[in-house]
Amino acid sequence: MGTYARQNLVFERGEGAWLITPSGDRYLDFASGIAVNVLGHAHPRLVAALTEQAGKLWHTSNLYRVEGQERLAERLVASTFADRVFFCNSGAEACEAAIKASRRYQFVSGKPERWRIITFTGAFHGRTLATIAAGGNAKYLEGFGPAVEGFDQVPFGDLEAVEQAIGPETAAIMIEPTQGEGGVNVASAEFLRALRALCDKHGLLLVFDEVQCGMGRAGTLFAYELAGITPDLMPIAKGLGGGFPLGALLATEEAAKALTPGTHGSTFGGNPLATAVGYAVLDAVLEPGFLEGVQQKALRLKQGLASIKDAHPDLVEEVRGQGLLAGIKVKVAPAEVVKAALGEKLLVAGASDNVVRLLPPLNIADEEIAEAMERLSRALGRVAAPAT
Ligand SMILES: *Cc1c(COP(=O)(O)O)cnc(C)c1O
Fold first, then answer.
1. Is 386 exposed, middle or buried (CB count within 10 Å of its CB: 0-12, 13-18, 19+)?
2. Do 13-30+289-381 and 45-285 show the same overall fold?
3. Separation between Cα atoms, residue 74 and residue 70, nearest integer Å
4. How far is CA 348 from CA 7, 19, 32, 293, in A?
5. What is written in the cofactor note of this entry (predicted)?
6. Which atom of ligand 1 is nearest the CA belonging to 34?
7. Is 211 in the pocket of ligand 1 (CB under 6 A)?
8. What is the pLDDT of residues 23-50, one digit of tens each?
């Protein structure tokens, strides 16, 4: 179907941070399939995990225990705030599960009148009916009938607006610690801590959507660690499977208490193939030194982008980001920069708010960051500055 405005470009193979076309052209991948390929392409450990599992067992459904799923869940629980994990196949499903868990938590807590969720401008939580309502982007809601009820949107970062939006029907607050699609907007640690305090005060659940900013991209395993607080619910996906479709909802014991047998489910969720790969990804990201490496590379990228801003002040307005989720706000349409970068065989991704996103694999080499900066600078050199 015509749902995507795709580049007329096809890749046959991948090697680390490089994507290779059938004719052998090599592109440096700073999009990572939208923050998905955290270990780059064709990582030997992921290839081994997938092929080994493929020879044993693919799918049994959740009618039975799934050993690989239990193993991955235990590792996620051991490495995060969470006590419980629900597996699904995508970010939208993980967010949908968080919305359902929030409402039903209040329901089983004797507060069925609490079903509304506070969300933020610029949010993106997926493309299902409930998650487009949660995201509140008019462009994504248009023509899809009455929006799912129960979302109250306030400006990103505006604590006073959050306080005013809390009412007797509020069940939860849902936020991306760093907005990806919305234009690489980083919530301050202070703001996230204030949301935690408000949730505690009013008996609300705090939901951190770490589908894009999680799985090491922030320089910590999850972005919430940087704020020094924990959420109650956390949908994750994208990087979790390193390219294999896998999503999950992480929860505290308390926040998970409403999801009893029969209340929610997924046929494919947490199947043996997906969870074998997910375990291998998590194992690599948790290796000693890996996240420190992400922090160092993030600093290098930030410095590189700052130099690019200095070199192209007529085009680059601002450098944004946290960890290896970086962006430059440009003074032209981001699509122009994405196209010019393609001309330099560099892959980057657009975002809202005139931002061009840079999302390299987390194991990107220093020389590849330097190479990307050269290519981006050359690309910007070919973009006409807006008339002043
Ligand atoms: C991509 C994204 C989603 C939706 O994930 P899909 O796998 O595309 O359904 C949800 N939340 C955030 C923060 C995302 O970046």
1. exposed
2. no
3. 6
4. 12, 13, 9, 21
5. Binds 1 pyridoxal phosphate per subunit.
6. 1
7. yes
8. 999 999 999 999 999 999 999 999 999 9
Cα–Cα distance measured from residue 22 to residue 75, given in angstroms and rounded to the nearest whole number: 39
Calculate how far, in angstroms, residue 198's C-alpha sits from the geometric centre of ligand 1.
Answer: 26
May I ask the CATH architecture of the domain 45-285?
A: 3-Layer(aba) Sandwich (3.40)
Mean pLDDT score of the chain, rounded to an integer?
A: 98
Which ligand 1 atom sits closest to the C-alpha of 210?
A: 13
Does residue 181 line the site of ligand 1, with CB under 6 A? yes
What percentage of the chain exceeds 90 in pLDDT? 99
Q: Where are the domains of the chain?
A: 13-30+289-381, 45-285
pLDDT in tens, 141-200: 999 999 999 999 999 999 999 999 999 999 999 999 999 999 999 999 999 999 999 999
Q: Are 106 and 115 in contact (CB under 8 A)?
A: yes
CA of 78 to the centre of ligand 1 (A): 24
Q: What CA–CA distance (Å, rounded) separates 344 from 377?
A: 10
- One-letter identity of residue 43: H
Residue 211 counted as an annotated binding residue: yes
| 355: amino acid identity, one letter | V
Neighbours of 385 (CB within 10 A): 12
- 13-30+289-381: which CATH architecture? Alpha-Beta Complex (3.90)
Q: Is 90 in the pocket of ligand 1 (CB under 6 A)?
A: yes
* pLDDT band at residue 387 under the 50/70/90 scheme: confident
